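Email to the structure team, subject: Protocatechuate dioxygenase model.

Hi all, the expression group asked for a predicted structure before they design truncation constructs. Nothing fancy, just the tokens so they can compare against earlier work. One-line instruction: predict Protocatechuate dioxygenase, return tokens.
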Amino acid sequence: MYDSSLENENFLRGVQEADANGQVTFTSIFPGAYMGRWPHIHFEVFESMSNATAAGQVLAVSQIALTQAACEDVYATAGYESSARNFPRTTLQSDNVFGDDGGIYQLAAMSGSAAAGYTAGLNVTI
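Reply from the structure team: attached below.
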């Protein structure tokens, strides 16, 4: 993502640095649902910010699976019509990433609403 040819592109990517407790907080939009994949957010873990921005060695690569209840709530709102059609076609068990264990290690704990916004949390062991 740090290639100069991508300077004017927006892939909803970002870099955050963990605090003293190893926690990262960020704000994003709710991802849409597309055919064959359960709604999720990708992340990578690097040893340092300089390693991340230099595309250095990755310590971990994973995804946060979003809850069914949150997806159903969000996809019932305007702007998510395509996601409302795609979402029922995939389950955590049929997803090609989460299917092995139904996403139990990657499923976020979520609270909130489509109207007020959601908070998602996931403990990741490195």
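The chain has a mean pLDDT of 92. The first strand starts at residue 40 and ends at 46. Ping us if the truncation boundaries need rechecking.
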